[in-house]
Each structure stands twice: as structure tokens, then as C-alpha cells.
């Protein structure tokens, strides 16, 4: 297959998530095999998850406005991609109306599909993307790039006041690995490749990209780049901004081609401008990314620490040491308790081992088991290097009163790492609002920020008069600091709009990030959800520069208007 040969994937073969929630339509979360979970949620959120959930609406129950694509415009679009690759049936339009934020799912379940796209386009080549953009600009239509649809910050929805034709540009047919430059450890890949497909194509040739965000199964390379994604192994491989070396982007000014140099000093980085641009500057069609040979050995070890603060200090020292693990993650006490509550029923032997461990921790190590924190640390490389890394990390862990508990919990975490979003929908079926917010800050500010945000979330629950839960884990470590990933859940009280209550809790957390010297978002982009805080995050002058850039490239606001800045 040559670089210019269109993908053979048809629009009907492009994988999509369920329109009413997260993930594969055939997959859902269940609590029946987790004996502690029902009591845990009832205690902390006052909801009985054994009660039946509310069934989602039928697609037929949604009312959406008729498409406003003129016949002449539709004929032009069909002339580029083919009649079968211009779709305007209800299911296609609804699936491309939103991402997968809690707000998106709640609105859909209320029957509110927002400003649905008027048509969904499936290009198969960069040349087709160029033609589609030219046609959209000439017709003064809005073009919104769409990857896997996993975004949770409102980066995909059209503005409700938009009266021009809105076109969703689904990149799913552009999913090929084009080339590997083995000496340079670089791969050229089309932007519409979903995580599993991309990794399979690389693995077949002995390579890996090493980028595994929570959304991996349902997100694309182009989406990762457009939102500055981070993966679970970013400690070793870097986040997508580090991994992306070259780019091709179709813009109103022409095709921007960023060559994959190892380094360059040619002015302000256009590559950096495209990273995190959320479709405002153009449509990413392909990227040249760093890849690595599949490691000989890979394992994730589990550890316990007596407190979150001690675990954080250990992660800080690991980040400053000669050790180079692929994963450094530690959950606070609340998330640790939740993790234990989601365990499946143990055998008698496993239960005896668990009881013995608990006694050892309490009697010999002086742990308060209600405050202990679970950590996962991953290692990759040759067997000799993995052994050395484990020794270096083990010595640091011990110096902070941590203990290793083996690889079995790590194997389970590795197997289930992409399943967590299904829990959100399971809870939402039962009236519980659960969501995530993440930030990053320096090591010296990490624990005060953590404690302050937890305090603010709990104060918001108290003000609402409801029981709520907030938990956190450190997910990515850097030389100077780390990312904190918060999960919060509560049941809205009767008599007040549910999304208003959600906004109150979300605002308390996000404002806490700003007030306590964290960034607005570490890897979930800006979209519309985070816009209110952007000026506080990057300064008014920073927002002015960003607005000037976006307006200069897209004067008529045809490319995903309303995202990042107004």
C-alpha cells in the first residue's frame, strides 16, 4: 500500500462508542461479583447500587433539528468523499454531537442533543481533507474534527447559537501506519488511528508508541495531539507533546508540514501551537511520532505506604533518582479503600493472606490501615535493567516505610486500567454524578494542593446538603512535580437542577487548582469546560496572544469555534 492510497476502511466499519454513554455498547460495569462495593457506596454516597438503574433513552426519543446543509453543498461534499461517506441519519448526528463528559451524557439522557452536526463526513486521505476544508470555507460552514469522541472537556460540541451548517469531520478512515524509520525510532501514522489499532500495527513490526491514556481503546492519535494527552506510562515515554515530532495539518492557510527534527531553533514552535489546539487551527491528518522497540520484560509492582504524604515524598525521590520507572502511581487513602471495595470475592486462602497482611501492617509496621495508600510502579526493559530499577525503587520505598506486596495487584491493575470509565455510567444509571478533574504542580506544593482541594470539595457537598466522596491519585511524575488526578462523586439533592449542583462541586475543585498553585488541566484540554479559568491560568496577556493566533488563522471562525477562548 503506497502512502497516497486511500484507506480501504468504509464509513460503516469505523468504530464508535455507545451514543448514550462510555465505551463498547456490549460492555458495562457490574457490582454483583464485588461483595464489598454495595456497602461501600451506600455508606459514603447513600445510594443502594443493587437497585435497578434507569434505562437509557431510545435514539428515537431524541428530537433533533433537520439538517441545514443545502443540496448544492451536499453535492460538493459527496463529490469529494463519495455519497456513502456523507452521513446525516439521526444516529450519526447524535454520536458526533458531544464528547463523553458527564455533562454530555446527562444532557443526552435528558433528550438534549445540543446543536447536532448537520452532516458527518468520512475522508480517506489528506487530499480529501483539503478539498472538504476549502468547500466548508467557501460555504461559510463550521468544521469540527472528530477522532474517537472520548473528549470530556466539551471540545467537540457546536455552539448552540450556530446557524451555519455544522459538519463533523470523522477521521476514522485515516487509520494507517504509513512508515517506520527504524534508525530514528520514528513512525508516520495517520491521525484517525484508534489506540488499539495503532498499537497493533506497531506491535506487528516489533514497536510500541508507549502512550496509553485511560481513553486508549476509544481515542485517536489526532485526538491525543489536539488535546495534549498524557498516558499511564508517560514517566518513561513522555506525554504526547514529547512523543510527537512531526505533523501535517490542513489549515485555511494551506498544509502545515512540521518535519520531525530531533531539535530546532526556528522561532516560536508551530508544533507546540498545534499541540492542544483542539481543531481551532486546522485538521491534523498525520503525525510522525517517537516509537520504541517492545521491551523484553514488563511488570508492575504494588506497594503500600502508611500515608499519602509519605508516598508522595517517595515518588519525589524516585523522580530525582537514577531510577526510571515507566509508571509511578500512588492512590490516597480514599482511593485505596475504593480499590479494595471493587475487588472480586476472594478465595478462603486469599482471605487468610489478606488477614495476615493486615495484622502484619498493624502490629509490625504500625500502619493505620484506614490511612494506608496503594501504589503501582512499573518497570520495562531488559531483565537486568528491570531488576536494577526494582532494587533502586525498593530502597527508596523502604526509606519511607513502604513495603512491596508483589506483582499480582499490578497485573490486575494492568488488565483493568481502561475499564474505569464504565463505573461512571453504572453510577449515573443510579442517580450518582461521578467525574474527574486533574492538575499538576511542583513537588513542594503537591500535598497542600491535595489537602486544600479535598477540603473544598467536601465543603461543597456540605453546602448542597448531600453526602459526597472525593479521592485522588498521583498519576504522572516529573523532575519538578507531578499530576494529581481527582475523582469525585455525589448524589444531587432533589429540588435543584442536577447540573447546577455538579457545576458547584466542579467549580470548587477547579478554582482550588488555580488558588493553590496548580494548573487548570494536566491532560484533559480546555474545550468549553475549562475556559472560565484560562485567564487565571495563563494570564490575560497569554489569552490575548492565543486569541490573536486563532483569529489570525481562522478569521471567519469556521474551525471548531468557541473552544479554548471565545
Concise account of the structure shown:
This protein is α+β, with helices and mostly antiparallel strands. It is built from 20 helices and 18 strands. Helix content is 37%, strand content 19%.
Describe this structure in words.
This protein is α+β, with helices and mostly antiparallel strands and 566 residues long. It folds into 4 domains: 11-36 and 54-170, 2-Layer Sandwich (Uridine Diphospho-n-acetylenolpyruvylglucosamine Reductase, domain 2); 188-293, Uridine Diphospho-n-acetylenolpyruvylglucosamine Reductase, domain 3, CATH 3.30.465; 297-416, 2-Layer Sandwich (Alpha-Beta Plaits); 421-539, GMP Synthetase, Chain A, domain 3 (2-Layer Sandwich), CATH 3.30.300.330. It is 37% helix and 19% strand. It is built from 20 helices and 18 strands. It has helices spanning 37-45, 71-81, 90-95, 102-109, 126-138, 195-203, 221-227, 234-237, 240-243, 270-274, 308-320, 333-341, 348-363, 383-399, 408-416, 421-428, 443-464, 498-515, 534-538, 540-553; strands spanning 86-87, 119-121, 142-146, 166-170, 177-181, 186-190, 207-208, 244-251, 254-258, 283-290, 292-293, 297-305, 327-331, 373-381, 403-406, 433-442, 468-477, 481-490. The chain has a 7-stranded antiparallel beta sheet with strand order 15-12-14-13-17-18-16, sandwiched between helices. Strands 5-6-10-8-9 form a 5-stranded antiparallel beta sheet. A 4-stranded mixed beta sheet has the order 1-2-4-3. The model is unreliable at 1-6 (pLDDT under 50).
Amino acid at each position: 500500500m503506497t502512502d497516497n492510497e486511500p484507506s480501504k476502511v468504509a464509513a460503516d466499519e469505523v468504530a464508535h462508542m455507545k451514543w448514550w454513554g462510555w465505551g463498547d455498547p456490549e460492555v458495562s460495569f457490574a457490582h454483583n461479583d464485588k461483595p464489598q462495593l454495595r456497602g461501600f457506596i451506600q455508606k459514603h454516597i447513600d445510594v443502594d447500587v443493587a437497585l435497578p438503574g434507569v434505562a437509557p433513552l431510545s435514539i428515537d426519543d431524541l428530537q433533533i433539528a433537520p439538517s441545514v446543509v443545502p443540496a448544492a453543498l451536499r453535492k460538493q461534499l459527496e463529490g469529494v468523499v463519495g455519497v456513502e461517506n456523507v452521513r446525516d441519519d439521526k444516529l450519526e448526528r447524535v454520536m458526533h454531537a458531544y464528547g463523553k463528559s458527564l455533562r454530555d451524557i446527562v444532557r443526552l439522557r435528558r433528550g438534549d442533543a445540543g446543536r447536532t452536526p448537520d452532516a458527518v463526513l468520512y475522508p480517506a486521505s489528506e487530499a480529501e481533507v483539503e478539498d472538504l476544508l476549502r468547500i466548508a470555507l467557501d460555504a461559510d460552514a463550521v468544521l469540527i474534527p472528530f477522532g474517537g469522541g472520548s473528549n470530556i472537556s466539551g471540545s467537540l460540541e457546536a455552539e448552540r447559537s450556530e446557524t451555519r451548517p455544522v459538519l463533523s469531520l470523522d477521521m476514522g478512515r485515516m487509520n494507517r501506519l504509513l512508515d517506520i524509520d527504524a534508525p530514528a525510532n520514528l513512525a508516520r501514522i495517520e491521525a484517525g488511528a484508534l489506540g488499539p489499532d495503532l498499537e497493533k500495527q506497531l506491535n506487528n513490526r516489533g514497536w510500541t508508541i508507549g502512550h496509553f491514556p485511560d481513553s486508549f481503546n476509544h481515542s485517536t492519535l489526532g485526538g491525543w495531539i489536539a488535546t495534549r494527552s498524557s498516558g499511564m506510562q508517560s514517566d518513561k515515554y513522555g506525554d504526547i507533546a514529547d512523543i510527537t515530532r512531526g505533523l501535517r495539518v490542513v489549515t485555511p492557510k494551506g498544509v502545515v508540514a512540521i518535519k520531525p527534527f530531533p531539535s530546532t531553533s526556528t522561532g516560536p514552535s508551530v508544533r507546540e501551537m498545534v499541540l492542544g489546539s483542539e481543531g481551532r487551527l486546522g485538521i491534523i491528518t498525520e503525525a510522525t511520532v517517537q516509537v520504541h522497540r517492545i521491551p523484553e520484560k514488563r511488570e508492575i509492582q504494588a506497594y503500600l505506604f502508611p500515608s499519602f504524604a509519605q508516598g508522595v515524598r517517595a515518588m519525589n525521590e524516585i523522580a530525582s533518582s537514577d531510577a526510571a520507572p515507566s509508571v509511578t502511581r500512588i492512590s490516597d487513602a480514599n482511593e485505596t479503600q475504593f480499590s479494595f471495595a471493587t475487588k472480586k470475592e476472594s478465595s478462603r486462602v486469599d482471605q487468610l493472606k489478606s488477614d495476615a497482611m493486615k495484622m502484619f501492617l498493624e502490629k509490625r509496621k504500625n500502619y493505620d490501615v484506614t490511612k494506608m495508600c496503594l501504589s503501582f510502579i512499573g518497570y520495562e526493559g531488559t531483565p537486568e535493567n528491570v531488576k536494577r530499577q526494582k532494587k533502586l525503587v525498593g530502597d527508596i520505598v523502604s526509606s519511607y516505610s513502604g513495603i512491596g506486596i508483589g506483582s499480582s495487584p499490578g497485573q490486575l491493575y494492568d488488565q483493568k486500567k481502561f475499564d474505569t470509565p464504565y463505573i461512571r455510567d453504572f453510577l449515573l444509571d443510579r442517580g450518582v454524578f461521578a467525574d474527574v478533574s486533574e492538575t499538576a504542580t511542583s513537588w513542594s506544593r503537591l500535598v497542600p494542593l491535595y489537602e486544600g482541594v479535598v477540603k473544598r470539595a467536601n465543603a461543597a457537598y456540605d453546602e448542597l446538603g448531600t453526602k459526597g466522596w472525593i479521592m485522588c491519585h498521583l498519576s504522572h511524575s516529573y523532575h519538578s512535580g507531578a499530576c494529581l488526578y481527582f475523582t469525585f462523586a455525589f448524589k444531587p439533592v432533589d429540588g435543584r437542577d442536577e447540573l447546577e449542583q455538579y457545576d458547584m462541586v466542579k467549580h470548587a475543585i477547579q478554582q482550588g487548582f488555580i488558588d493553590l498553585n496548580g494548573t487548570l488541566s494536566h491532560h484533559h484540554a480546555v474545550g468549553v469546560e475549562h475556559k472560565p479559568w484560562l485567564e487565571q491560568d495563563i494570564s490575560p496577556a497569554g489569552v490575548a496572544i492565543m486569541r490573536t493566533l486563532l483569529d489570525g488563522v481562522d478569521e471567519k471562525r469556521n474551525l471548531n469555534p468557541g473552544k479554548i477562548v471565545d
